[in-house]
Structure formats: C-alpha cells, structure tokens
Amino acid sequence: MDAFILRHGAAELSARTDFERALNARGRAQAAQAVKQSAELAGVKRLLVSPLLRAQQTAEIVLELIGDRPSQTCDWLVPDARLDRTIDELSRFSEESSILLVSHLPLVAELTEALCGKPRGFAQFDTASLAALSGDLLAAGCAELRWIRHAS
User: Fold this and answer.
1) CATH top-level class for 2-149?
2) Three-class DSSP category at 146
3) Is 142 exposed, middle or buried (0-12, 13-18, 19+ CB in 10 A)?
4) Residue spans per domain, the chain
5) pTM (2 decimals)?
6) Less crowded by CB within 10 Å, the N or C end of the chain?
C-alpha cells in the first residue's frame, strides 16, 4: 500500500481559535504545488483529514486537482493527537491501496518517523510538505519512506 502524508499549507497567523485558522494565499498556492508536483497522488483512493479548517481547505484543493475521492474527517489527525492512537486508527485502512492524510505538525513528522522506524527529528516538514511511504501495512516500523517533497 501507498500512504501519503501532507502537512497543510501556510495559514493565517491568528484567528479566534486555532481550529479556525484558515489558509492564506501562499498556503493555497503551496497546497496546489504539492499536488501538481506529485503525479502519484492521482492513484489515491481515500483522504483522511484533520478537522481543523486549514487542513480541510488543503484537502479541498487536493480534491479539486485529483478529482473527487472518498474523504473522511478524523479527530485523531489533530496536531496534538496521541501517536499510538493515530497508528492504531490507521491500521484499519491497511486494505486500501493508496491513502492521503492531511494533518499538522508535530503529528505528521512523528507519524512518518514511527511508521518508517526512523529516529525522532528525522522527518522535516514545512507547510505543504508531502511524504510518500509504502509498505504492506501501516504499523510502527513497517513502512519505507520513499521521499519527502517540500513546496516553495
């Protein structure tokens, strides 16, 4: 299976709550660039998305560019989600051939490192950075990191 992990694009610095921080113009452009430079996303079968506004907006851009796919909002993809819970929840999607997660720091980096058996601090994610992983299942230490691409 293939798993892609995308950090949301750049967002406004402030809002009434962190949940409501929206993508700014740069973030929208970054999200589009991340998709356009990764033709492999055309094969994604399902999107799993954080409920925070900036992640939802990033996912909308992805779907505009790759076409409509099943999408699911997941409360276990928030920035401070427990890593063990996220990995446990992901295991339910191991039968999918290709999924895309849209989330936040620090979760995207910690998740990439845990799934690939890499040390803490290995995976560096900027806004709209996209990682590609592959493996037989989504479990700690069972995936291979193929690449991480960074938007400009």
Assistant:
1) alpha beta
2) strand
3) middle
4) 2-149
5) 0.96
6) C
